Structure formats: C-alpha cells, structure tokens
Amino acid sequence: MLKLFNQNLFSQTGWRFLWLAVLTFVLDQYTKKLTVEHIELYQAVEITPFFNLTHVYNTGAAFSFLSDAGGWQRWFFTVIAFVVVGLILWWLKQTSRQQILLPVAFCLIIGGALGNVYDRIVLGHVVDFLVLYYQDWVWPAFNIADSAICLGAALLIVDMFKNKELKND
Fold first, then answer.
1. Which residues form the active site (predicted)?
2. Identified catalytic residue from 136, 146, 159, 169
C-alpha cells in the first residue's frame, strides 16, 4: 500500500499531472451546474454571432451517437470510459519524468472522460451547452469535458509527431 503513495511514483511518472485531470473534472462539473441552474432546457443564450450557450442533454456519445438506443448505451459508454481511463492511468504510470506533453494529454482525456461518466451515472445523460454555428450550419452541442478530450487527443497527435525521431532511435 505504501508503494502506491510512494513520492517517487508521483514525482517520476506522468501521475504528477493528475491534478490536471481533477481540475478538468471540477471545471466541467461546475460549468454544467451553472448551465442547469441558469439556463432553461433548450434555451439558447447568444454570446457571439457564431457561439451560443444552449442547455441540452445527450444520452448518447459524441454527436449524440446512439442517443435513441433505448438506455443500454448509458452503461455501455460508462464501462468503455472506465476501461479507457484504467488503460490511460497504466500508460501514464509508464511515462518518464522527461515527458510532459504526453501525460498532459492523457490527464485531459481522463478528466473529460470522468466528467461525462459522472453525468451518465448520476443524471442518466450528459449535460451539453456549448454550441458553435454559422448561418444554418450548427455544430453539435458539447461541454468542457468534450473539449478536454479533443484537446488531449490533439496533443497526443502532436506528441506522436514531435517525438517521432526519439522513438525511431
């Protein structure tokens, strides 16, 4: 048990960035709470000519994938998220102290995944509220968790190209 909390484990691996996952989770949940408390369901609040805050629920995954599947998808996506978070935590432990971009990307993905999983377990749906649009074209609503997952995925790609030379040596 003491090895789990060993100072070296947290200072020498990617686990030292887990605070970012916690921060992402807290920011995601806080903004969703504000949305539910201050914006009526389906109400749109225009922020700019291309950006609204719109309170909506998503029972599916990205882009409302499987949102009309009858309810089983809630637990399916929850299990997938927990498996992915477990796998990423294992990968995170394997990262070295010299790596920064990769563990930051992993922690953003963990925080975002857990933010949406929390909604699925507690509410039965994910609260989305950020909407980008142009004239009649509207991007599906998303939230801070989704943004963190996308940013984390983009950073993984950047890390892959940035460290390509190191991995081929």
1. 128, 146
2. 146
Ranges of each domain in the chain: 16-163
pTM of the model: 0.84
Which of 76-90, 118-132, 134-148 comes out lowest in average pLDDT? 76-90
Who wins on pLDDT, 19 or 12? Answer: 19
Residue 128 designated active-site: yes
Choice among 28, 68, 119, 128 that is catalytic? 128
**Burial call 29-41: b when 16+ CB within 10 Å, e when fewer:** bebbeebeeebee
Per-residue pLDDT, 59: 73
Cα(138)–Cα(56) distance, integer angstroms: 14
Q: What is the pLDDT of residue 1?
A: 45
User: What is the length of the chain?
Assistant: 169
Amino acid identity, position 39: I
Q: Which of 85, 83, 103 is nearest to 93 (CA)?
A: 103
The residue ranking higher by pLDDT, 57 or 68, is: 57
